[in-house]
Design goal:
The complex is a heterodimer. Chain A is mainly alpha-helical. Chain A has twelve helices and two strands, in the order αααααβαααβαααα. Chain A has one domain. In chain A, helix 1 runs antiparallel to helix 2, helix 2 runs parallel beside helix 6 and helix 3 packs across helix 8. Chain B has a six-stranded mixed sheet, sandwiched between helices. In chain B, strands 2-1-4-5 form a four-stranded antiparallel sheet, covered by helices on one side. The chains are: A mainly alpha, B alpha/beta.
Chain lengths: ~325, ~250
């Protein structure tokens, strides 16, 4: 564990250094790439709470990622075009202020997760996987058939949403905004995992019947974990829209759910920094192998197969094993 | 009725044409250990599952401390004071022994939904958990993962999880299965000690332990209670000898 903790600290050092070096050497591409790693890492950390720590294999987290993205896109679209969004119960023309957008994204993602959780957590196993997938696909097809906001072509927002005083259009500044969110999400997740509540949801993953028998309301615990997990992933979706200044239905598709799941599995299930490492690994592969072949995912699949066969608990577990060997 | 803490009336459960429990009426008095014995497949464990609510019964009623709990869920029954052990050890395998006990203490101390305080810094919870580990003679192994404990130690941990809930009644399903002599003696002494606070409905195949512990014994066969009485009455009962005990005891 100690080696893994040192490695985790190095991850944060790299996350600080790479964009700064990108800025110094005038390579904004690396800043954007690292921003993407951070945002997708946040989405993965969200899913990891449900999947890794509580055993809820959600195949529908794209719903939250996409909802966060669309809420951000729609609010911003109306604000930038000075178009009325709705006039009842109050008049609103959207907002391009991140301080307004983030709370709305958090509340709407939490609400969606509550609705999906209330229905899907009545099932387990493969039924839970299928019902979460079905919800995400429903939203995907809804977004495709919603011409007001671009339909299949997606929605461009031209200008990144703003914060008071800070220039969010500057890539390095926006990167540090995302990094702050990552640190907040890691902090909250670490607190949750080490709390009594965390003890309860980690126990549910291992033996739910036993947890019920000691009087713990497992449904409530799982629902709350699912809501927190969905909210974090929704926030990542919001940042992703701001990064690209574009949102399309593809982020609601099952492939997005699969990608977030791959981040978790690659980095290490039930490891706090695992999804971040997984997202970084995924993007490095995409950028390097993608330069040689369009079918780079073939190699990703091969790596996943080898990992599941020989490492199982993710890249980070390699460092834990090393410690045991050293002992 | 006043001296009964648990009163089960006409509890039945069928899977198709097969009646697992057939109009079972049984009760548990304050301060007593009531043993439930019978051949394998007689319906003992299914009865426990119906009492805790993990298996839904077809007809019948369950009264706990003068409160009808028939329609409560398994979690609600656990909350109001039914604590059980499982026939096959059911613990949290990757938690240490002490964390297993702490988990069992969470609901009673209203800490389940405490989100931002480290559970390991809660000295009160861990001190209470240590006391329980001491009682079940697992104090020395408190930091060992439950999956690395021996079979006997897992059985003890099962009982520890039940103790931690400080319930109104205990339902113990073969708690001494696979224990060595010292483990069995430890359990016997422990059960004698705790029964005054929380009476015990005990399923056990170790007849020496049953006869050493039980204030009353009920015998179940093909889902029906065929006899209830004191240890001596049961020992002498011809029907019980026929269906379960044999003639060497």
């Amino acid at each position: 564990m100690i080696v893994e903790k040192i490695f985790n600290k190095w991850i944060l050092v790299f996350l600080f250094l790479i964009p700064v070096l990108g800025f110094i050497f005038e390579e904004p591409y690396y800043i954007t790439l690292t921003t993407k790693v951070v945002i997708l890492g946040i989405a993965g950390i969200g899913l990891n709470l449900a999947l890794g720590y509580c055993g809820l294999i959600s195949f529908g987290h794209a719903a939250f990622f996409g909802l966060g993205g669309y809420v951000t896109g729609i609010l911003s679209f109306h604000a930038l075009n000075s178009e009325l969004m709705f006039s009842w119960p109050f008049v609103s023309s959207g907002s391009s202020d991140m301080l307004v957008i983030w709370p709305i994204v958090i509340l709407s993602s939490a609400f969606l997760a509550l609705i999906i959780g209330l229905l899907s957590l009545r099932t387990t196993g493969v039924y839970f996987i299928m019902i979460t997938l079905a919800f995400a696909q429903m939203l995907y097809f809804f977004a495709i058939s919603w011409p007001n906001y671009g339909g299949e072509d997606g929605l461009s927002i031209y200008m990144r949403n703003s914060l008071p005083i800070i220039n969010t259009m500057d890539p390095l500044t926006f990167y540090f905004i995302c990094l702050c969110w990552l640190l907040i999400v890691i902090f909250i997740s670490a607190k949750l995992i080490n709390s009594s509540f965390g003890m309860a949801f980690q126990a549910i993953k291992q033996n739910e019947e036993r947890v019920k028998s000691v009087g713990i309301e497992t449904f409530k615990v799982k629902l709350l974990v699912f809501v927190i997990s969905g909210t974090i992933t929704g926030l990542a979706g919001s940042l992703y829209t701001d990064l690209n200044r574009f949102i399309s239905p593809s982020v609601l598709n099952w492939q997005m759910s699969g990608e977030i799941m791959v981040f978790v599995i690659l980095g290490g299930i039930a490891r706090l920094y695992g999804p971040l490492v997984g997202a970084a690994f995924f993007i490095v592969l995409e950028q390097t192998l993608g330069g040689y072949t369009e079918n780079w995912q073939f190699w990703l699949g091969l790596i996943l197969i080898l990992e599941i066969l020989y490492v199982r608990t993710g890249i980070l577990s390699l460092f834990e094993k090393k410690l045991k060997y050293e002992k | 009725m006043k001296n009964k803490i648990l009163n089960i009336k006409n509890l039945s459960k069928s899977y198709g044409a097969f009646k697992v429990t057939d109009e079972i009426t049984i009760d548990l008095h304050f301060d007593e250990i009531h043993a439930l014995i019978g051949p394998n497949g007689a319906g003992k464990s299914t009865l426990i599952k119906q009492i805790v609510g993990s298996v839904k019964h077809d007809i019948g009623s369950i009264i706990l401390d003068q409160e009808d709990i028939t329609d409560l869920t398994d979690v609600e029954r656990a909350k109001i004071g039914i604590s059980r052990t499982f026939q096959v050890s059911s613990i949290i395998p990757q938690f240490s022994a002490i964390d297993n006990i702490v988990l069992s203490l969470l609901d009673k101390s209203s800490k389940t939904f405490q989100m931002f305080k480290s559970v390991r810094n809660n000295k009160e919870l861990y001190s209470n958990a240590n006391k329980i580990l001491n009682e079940i003679e697992l104090f020395e192994k408190s930091d060992i993962s439950a999956c690395d404990l021996s079979h006997g130690d897992r059985r003890k941990l099962e009982v520890g999880l039940a103790l931690a809930m400080d319930p109104k009644v205990f339902l113990f399903d073969e708690p001494m299965a696979g224990l060595d002599e010292s483990g069995t003696n430890m359990m016997i002494n422990l059960f004698k000690k705790i029964k005054s606070n929380s009476p015990i409905l005990l399923i056990e195949h170790d007849m020496d332990a049953v006869f050493a512990l039980a204030d009353r014994v009920s015998v179940i066969n093909y889902g029906k209670i065929v006899a209830t009485g004191t240890v001596d009455e049961i020992r002498k009962n011809e029907l019980v000898r026929d269906v379960y005990l044999g003639y060497e005891i």
